[in-house]
Amino acid sequence: MVAVDAWSPSPLQVERDRLRRRATLRSRLIAAVSTLAVGTLLVVAVTGSSGWPRVQAQFFDLATARDALPTVAHALLVNLEALLICGVLVPVFGMLIAIARTTQSPVTLPLRILAAAYTDLFRGTPLILVLLVIGFGVPGLRLPYVPTDPLFLGVVALTLTYTSYVAEVFRAGIEAVHPSQRAAARSLGLSYTQTLRFVVLPQAVRKVVSPLLNDLVSLQKDSGLISVIGAIDAVRQAQILTANLGNFTPYLVAGGLFVVMTIPLTRLTDYLAARDSRRRLAGGAL
Amino acid sequence: MPVLELQQVRKRFGQRWVLGGVDLVLPEGTATVLIGASGSGKSTLLRCVNLLETVDDGSILLDGGDITAVRADADAVRRRIGVVFQAYNLFPHLSVLDNVTLGPRRAQGVARGEAEGHARDLLSRFGLLEKAADYPDRLSGGQQQRVAIVRALATRPRLLLLDEVTSALDPELVGEVLSLVRDLRGEGMTMLIATHEMGFAREVADEVCFLDAGSVLERGTSQQVLADPQQPRTRQFLQRILTPGA
Ligand SMILES: Nc1ncnc2c1ncn2[C@@H]1O[C@H](COP(=O)(O)OP(=O)(O)O)[C@@H](O)[C@H]1O
Ligand SMILES: [Mg+2]
After folding, report:
1. Is the Cβ pair A183, B91 closer than 8 Å?
2. B143 min Cα distance to partner chain A (Å)
3. Which of A39, A133, B61, B112 is at a distance of 20 to 30 A from B99, taking alpha carbons?
4. Which residue does chain B place closest to A187, by CA atoms?
């Protein structure tokens, strides 16, 4: 093997590197200029329109935003709480349902049918309907020991709906693991459950990380829907402020906060997806 | 008592009989080689022995115990049999060391330290120790297949099943895998081997069985079957495989 430090690039390589750097610089410049141009155009088009002054006063009032921010941000804690609970429950239940659906023994047929019926039902029903039915239906039943506060019921509805999405994601991952992997594991003497735990699920989860995180991002913003059943979350708080102040700016404040809340997870999703495709390109056979 | 004995084993897929009553006896420390055209049932036979398929008639005895009995514990049987597949089937999410120790640790309850010690011994014996921490996709095909063999050996099997273990390899990598199998043969490992490598078969086989449409058409020592076949179909097969393109 040739020692790396004994090598200095040939003139040919030096020239190639120089040209490459120049090309990179040029494309960055073009990108910057075009972004600036489009941005300016948009701003001019919007602020130049005849209705802009009124819209600005109604939606972009800085003083109102300053007043609304602390209250709305505080109410966002309700969304965060819902999110944290769902973020734990949804993957756990989703995984259990995916496992149930992918069992093969005749004994577990009822389990498979139940799991399929559940996912079909909740994947097909609009979340808002699930929220309304759970949020207003369950308290109406006057069941003993079942809490009726809107946050709890909202979490139940979100979990029911999102578990069905996430279960399908996990199921796709499990089915994407080649059957020969199971055969190899069983050949070593591993039981069905051990094979699932040590061989199938670790590979399945790796395959579905990005779609999974995508669903979690959706869950984050859909946590704002629990306002329709009366939870005082960021959306609901913004609505109250809007009514009191006669100005729509609080809605935009809430929207901005939701975006800020989802950004870390969105970036993480992009990063993991990029890493994944890089590894696939480099790794070859997997 | 032989390590493995097949008595009139039959297997069908749908209405088609893929194995039509196969008898086989493997005394301890011997190697039996299955040859035969693609689709003749070699893989199916190996999969039946490993209980990845259930037989439709006949019985298979491992150390005298009937493993095709309804009450047989399939996982326990598989712990006593090592299998190496044509496509390696290493676990891509586990390092070489973890691939090798998975069976002993999870299926046999061996402690981690002990399992890893044994795995390192095996890996170093076959020149793979420096790959212990690597993931399978960093290895060449020959290295992957050797790791797969080490993985099968790690459970200290009574019997090793090898299904065309060199068929997926580039020609220059075949040698390193075959020489490993040769070493095992020298150490007295009992083996049932499906292969298209006739030179290798001649060298390691105590008995060669020519499988044709799910039946053993001809059997004997490698001298008898490979050098002096009696059946026209055996001759035909050998001619085709020894003069490719003919
Ligand atoms: N799971 C299966 N279902 C239906 N037919 C199968 C199955 N596995 C193998 N076969 C058929 O059984 C025959 C024997 O296959 P196999 O044992 O793989 O042969 P070989 O390993 O000798 O090439 C082939 O005709 C194949 O198509
Ligand atoms: Mg085969």
Report:
1. no
2. 14
3. B61
4. B78
SS3 B154: coil
Give A135-178 as a DSSP string.
IIIHHHHT-TT----HHHHHHHHHHHHHHHHHHHHHHHHHHHS-
The two tokens of residue A228 are 């329709």
How far, in Å, CA of B44 to CA of B22, rounded? 12
DSSP string, B173-238: HHHHHHHHHHHHHHTT--EEEE-S-HHHHHHH-SEEEEEETTEEEEEE-HIIIIIS--SHHHHHHH
Per-residue pLDDT tens digits for A232-279: 999 999 999 999 988 899 999 999 999 998 888 888 888 887 887 776
Residues B5-49 pLDDT 10s: 999 999 999 999 999 999 999 999 999 999 999 999 999 999 999
Chain A closest CA to B81's CA: distance in Å? Answer: 8
Domain A62-282 listed as CATH 1.20.1290.10: no
Closest ligand (CA of B38): 1
Contacts of B169 (CB under 8 A, 6+ apart): B141, B142, B145, B177
A199 in contact with chain B, both atoms CB, cutoff 8 A: yes
- Select B4-91+158-242's CATH number: 3.30.450.40, 1.10.150.120, 2.30.30.30, 3.40.50.300: 3.40.50.300
Q: Looking at this predicted complex, what is its ipTM?
A: 0.91
- Answer for the pair A196, A108: CB distance below 8 angstroms, yes or no: no
- Pocket lining for ligand 1, CB < 6 angstroms: B 13, 18, 36, 38-44
